[in-house]
Amino acid sequence: MNQYLKFLNKECKTDQQILNDIKNEFDPKISINQTGTFYCNGIMNLGTGNDKFMRDHINWHSKAKNWTMFQNISVLGMIHQGNHVGAYSILDPYLPNKNVRSTDTDSEYINGGALYALGLIYSNFYNKNTID
């Protein structure tokens, strides 16, 4: 599986300028535009591990609320699909912390999106530790 991920990452020909043009074309206050842009990024980089667009626009991403945040974080699962080795390190900032119980509504959507992303990363792959 590792060779497959290396191949996809090496052969990724995503044009970041297209994503930047889409992002800049629409009103940033409308969440559906942000979600659509992140889904475009996810589809263009499916399985490649190329999350450069998300890292470059982290400030824009952090303005999302509720379901938009859930969806944006779940796109990480699309991008890193099959990356079983690095899944937890990638999603660690977003995964629920067992020791801290948050009452913040945004954190519930963030945690849910991260768990969904984890499911996408491990799709078609059984891992008892992940399930537990």
How does this structure look, described?
The protein is an all-alpha fold and 132 residues long. The chain has one domain. Helices cover 62% and strands 0% of the residues. α3 packs parallel to α6 and α6 runs parallel beside α8. The longest helix has 17 residues. It starts with a helix and ends with a helix. The relative contact order is 0.14.
List descriptors.
132 residues; mainly alpha; 9 helices; 62% helix; 0% strand; flat
Q: Helices and strands: which structural class?
A: mainly alpha
- How many distinct folded domains? 1
Count of individual beta strands:
0
Distance between the termini: 23 Å
Strand portion: under 5%
How much helicity do the residues have? 55-70%
What is the approximate shape? flat
Low-confidence stretches: none
Average pLDDT value?
A: 81
Secondary structure tally, helices? 9
Topology:
Layout: H1 2-10, H2 16-25, H3 31-44, H4 52-56, H5 58-61, H6 66-79, H7 87-91, H8 105-121, H9 128-131
Brief synopsis:
The chain has 132 residues and is mainly alpha-helical.
